[in-house]
């Protein structure tokens, strides 16, 4: 087993396979350009790692000792369908076979395998079939592992390009989706809870960039909650690059809204005001939609009627990526993306004061508008947006 | 970073390290940095520091010279409680599997007991009355054939009530002479007189950072006759009860902090009682239903816990903070993601009361308390 390590050259490469980007026809250049730029951002702090687009693939070349870090970081690259840590060889059968043997030596004894080859460079003297047969034979002789061309436990892949050969046997899944930056800018209504960070992540996975907007109700929510929201934004930024969080100081407006209407309408009035202020902040930075963690029926007030009355106050389309998720699905996703452990940290709850015991479940627009009639809601929203504090994380 | 405008009334949470103490700590880090186990002069001077701190602590708790017991240096109150409770229980595992403790013990004790319960032990909780004092009769009824450990805190960390530990230990021994009595005295040291002999406990837990000493430093006093199992193994330091190179800076710092706390205790206790009165009056001036938790019970002077009907705890804390007054808060109800206080529940404080705990240290000044009192009245009014 000594040779497996010593055969390994000191440079490695990860071959990236792009996801739905292939479907995007003439837009392909834009999509792969964004993916390459995002990949470069992810590996920027690693020494001597390069990202180069090559035909339908992207190659990330790295010092062999950094393989684990490179793979870990590329795991945050939206638009990446899968990645294969490969060995780069000369375009010679000898070198390719040596690399394939080294790869196979890492397999468990008795593992069945086959070799699959792909010749992008048709000038190579052997056909793909020939390469597979030849390399497979040498691996079998060198390792004694059985070949099974129909149902192999492992597949050793050989790719031949004009410049080099690539040999790999591991294919790791990427996060899928579309590269961040290809779907336009959005504004995420971010709280300290479990849902909204997942909603933001879901929008990013469909290619959106985002800013976050957090409504802070000091002293009813403390500054630790604000820190927690910033920590959540930092966690999202791993997938996205730096994020601007707009902290909106909401307390006074919240008090005025509570005084203006019947108690059971309070939640709807707060959320309508959030939509107005968020629309202004979002429009100011060119966002094309708002993103929320709202869900149908998770709490009593999340009804279709209420969502409609709330949305009526928004000046931009409202995306609700989690609208049909079960809570358990949201939690699973939150755990997977690393926001759950932050979201469940204790935080202050303004509910005891601001949320009525029995919120309306079927609010009517006319009632909301009647309650708002005594207030200059437009001016209040402008004031909230103007006084928001922008923090880059 | 503390701000010049801060009025720090959260000394029961932790205290600022005294200048004299940090000097000792730095000296032990930079100059006398030896390992107490080393045979050369740096090792000897480090050992001398530890001996000095031991003498200071023993003298402070009424056991000068260590006639009754010895000191195990730990990482703080939590470890001291864990060693006192779990260590004694494990040493007695062959005799019985029952622990008795009060309903207002610190989490360090409660969670140590919870671990023993997961390992098959039984535990019984002694109820407290509405003023936060245990019922001695209830305690007696809970002591049985199987009982091995009784855990009682001397001063409660949330409401400051003093438990009748000495009388409790006496009554326990009448029923079961060989029970191990553990006492959490973390909030008592330097605040009220502590005399381990009079307490009658077998192990007593202390912490440095509550008395202007460094964090990460504490001690467990153990009676010579007490039996403990170590929590972990290692190089056999401290008679094998707590292996690990001694934290000489922390220990020496704790010794110095104890020395100061004992020398100044009476002088500060009188000031603190006055502060508590000023703040209680300010709370009552806000014009809502106000309760002093544990009001009728004997209480330590450095902490006062005030409950306001209809005022939620967290917003009150944040309002006070926004005006420079730093305190702790709690309530008996669960505020969605915040756990209710088991102490406030144990004294049956209504869920509609928000509580703030104001606690004082050697640096707390009368004019700060006057200003804080005005802020408190205002803050409560603004939230009504």
Provide a concise account of the structure shown.
Chain A is α/β, with parallel strands linked by helices and 393 residues long. Chain A is built from 15 helices and 14 strands. Chain A has helices at 2-7, 28-43, 67-74, 93-105, 128-143, 195-205, 223-240, 251-260, 266-284, 304-311, 327-337, 340-343, 351-354, 365-372, 377-386; strands at 11-18, 50-54, 57-63, 80-89, 113-119, 154-160, 165-168, 172-176, 185-189, 209-216, 244-249, 289-291, 318-319, 389-392.
Describe the fold and architecture.
- The complex is a heterodimer of chains A (393) and B (384).
- Chain A is 41% helix and 21% strand.
- With 393 residues, chain A is an alpha/beta fold.
- Chain A folds into two domains: 2-175, VC0802-like, CATH 3.30.2130; 185-392, HUPs (Rossmann fold), CATH 3.40.50.
- In chain A, the strands form two sheets. In chain A, strands 1, 2, 3, 4, 5, 6, 7 and 8 form an eight-stranded mixed beta sheet that branches.
- The mean pLDDT of chain B is 95.
- In chain B, the strands form three sheets. A seven-stranded mixed beta sheet of chain B has the order 2-8-7-6-5-3-4, sandwiched between helices.
- In chain B, helix 4 links the parallel strand 3 and strand 4 (122-126).
- Chain B folds into two domains: 7-13 and 265-383, Alpha-Beta Complex (Aspartate Aminotransferase, domain 1), CATH 3.90.1150.10; 19-260, 3-Layer(aba) Sandwich (Aspartate Aminotransferase, domain 2), CATH 3.40.640.10.
- Chain B has helices at residues 19-30, 41-60, 77-91, 107-118, 136-142, 165-175, 196-199, 248-285, 313-322, 342-346, 366-383; strands at 7-8, 69-74, 98-102, 122-126, 147-153, 180-184, 203-207, 218-223, 290-292, 303-309, 325-326, 328-331, 353-359.
- Chain B is an alpha/beta fold and 384 residues long.
- Chain B is globular.
- Chain B is built from eleven helices and 13 strands.
- The A-B interface holds A 218-223, 344-353 and B 312, 314-319, 321-322, 335-339.
């Amino acid at each position: 087993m000594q040779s497996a390590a010593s055969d390994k050259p000191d440079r490695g490469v990860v071959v990236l396979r792009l996801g739905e980007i292939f479907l995007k026809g003439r837009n392909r250049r834009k999509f792969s350009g964004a993916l390459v730029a995002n990949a470069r951002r992810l590996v920027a702090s690693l020494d001597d790692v390069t990202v180069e687009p090559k035909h339908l693939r992207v190659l990330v070349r790295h010092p062999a000792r950094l393989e684990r870090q490179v793979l870990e970081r590329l795991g945050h690259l939206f638009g990446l369908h899968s990645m294969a840590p490969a060995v780069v060889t000369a375009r010679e059968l000898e070198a390719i076979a040596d690399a394939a043997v080294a790869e196979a030596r890492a397999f468990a004894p008795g593992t069945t395998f086959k070799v699959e080859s792909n010749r992008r460079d048709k000038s190579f003297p052997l056909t793909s079939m020939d390469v597979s047969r030849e390399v497979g034979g040498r691996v079998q002789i060198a390792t004694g592992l059985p070949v099974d061309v129909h149902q192999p436990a492992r597949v050793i892949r050989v790719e031949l390009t004009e410049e080099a050969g690539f040999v790999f046997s591991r294919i790791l899944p990427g996060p899928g989706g579309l590269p961040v930056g290809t779907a336009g800018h959005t504004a995420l209504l971010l709280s300290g809870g479990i849902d909204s960070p997942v909603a933001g992540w879901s929008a990013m996975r469909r290619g959106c960039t985002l800013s976050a907007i957090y409504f802070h109700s000091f002293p009813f929510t403390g500054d630790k909650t604000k820190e927690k929201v910033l920590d959540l934004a930092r966690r999202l930024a791993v997938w996205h690059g730096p994020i601007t969080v707009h902290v909106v100081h909401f307390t006074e407006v919240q008090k005025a809204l509570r005084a203006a209407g019947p108690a059971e309408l309070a939640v709807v009035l707060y959320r309508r005001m959030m939509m107005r202020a968020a629309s202004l902040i979002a429009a100011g930075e060119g966002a094309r939609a708002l993103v929320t963690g709202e869900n149908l029926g998770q709490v009593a007030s999340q009804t279709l009627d209420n969502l409609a009355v709330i949305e009526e106050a928004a000046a931009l389309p409202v995306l609700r990526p989690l609208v049909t998720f079960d809570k358990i699905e949201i939690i699973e996703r939150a755990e997977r993306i690393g926001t759950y452990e932050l979201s469940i940290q204790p935080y202050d709850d303004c509910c005891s004061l601001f949320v009525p015991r029995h919120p309306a479940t079927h609010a009517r627009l006319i009632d909301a508008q009647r309650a708002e009639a005594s207030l200059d809601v437009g001016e209040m929203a402008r004031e909230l947006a103007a006084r928001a504090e922008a923090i880059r994380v | 970073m503390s701000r010049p405008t801060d009025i720090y009334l959260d000394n029961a949470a932790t205290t600022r390290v005294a200048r004299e103490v940090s000097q000792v700590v730095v000296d032990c880090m930079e100059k006398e940095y030896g390992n107490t186990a080393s045979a050369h002069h740096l090792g000897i001077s480090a050992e001398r520091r530890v001996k000095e701190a031991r003498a200071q602590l023993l003298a402070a708790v009424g056991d000068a010279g260590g006639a009754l017991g010895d000191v195990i240096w730990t990482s703080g109150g939590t470890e001291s409680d864990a060693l006192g409770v779990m260590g004694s229980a494990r040493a007695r595992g062959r005799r019985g599997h029952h622990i008795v403790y009060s309903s207002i013990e610190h989490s360090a004790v409660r969670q140590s007991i919870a671990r023993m319960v997961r390992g098959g032990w039984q535990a019984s909780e002694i109820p407290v009355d509405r003023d936060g004092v245990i019922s001695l009769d209830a305690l007696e009824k809970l002591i049985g054939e199987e009982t091995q450990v009784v855990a009682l805190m001397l001063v409660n960390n949330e409401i400051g009530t003093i438990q009748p530990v000495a009388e409790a230990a006496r009554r326990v021994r009448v029923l079961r002479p060989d029970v191990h009595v553990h006492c959490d005295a973390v909030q008592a040291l330097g605040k009220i007189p502590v005399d381990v002999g009079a307490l009658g406990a077998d192990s007593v837990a202390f912490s440095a950072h509550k008395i202007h000493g460094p964090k990460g430093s504490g001690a467990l006093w153990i009676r010579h006759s007490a039996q403990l199992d170590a929590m972990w193994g290692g190089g056999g330091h401290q008679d094998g009860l707590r292996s690990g190179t001694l934290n000489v800076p922390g220990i020496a710092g704790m010794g110095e902090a104890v020395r100061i706390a004992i020398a100044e205790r009476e002088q500060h206790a009188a000031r603190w009682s006055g502060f508590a009165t000023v703040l209680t009056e300010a709370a009552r001036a806000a014009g809502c239903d106000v309760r002093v938790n544990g009001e009728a019970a004997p209480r330590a002077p450095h902490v006062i816990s005030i409950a306001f009907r209809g005022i939620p705890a967290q917003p009150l804390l944040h309002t006070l903070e926004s005006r420079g007054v730093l305190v702790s808060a709690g309530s008996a109800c669960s505020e969605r993601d915040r756990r209710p206080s088991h102490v406030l529940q144990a004294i049956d404080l209504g869920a509609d009361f928000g509580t703030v705990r104001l606690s004082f240290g050697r640096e707390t000044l009368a004019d700060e308390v006057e200003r804080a009192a005005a802020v408190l009245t205002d803050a409560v009014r603004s939230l009504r």
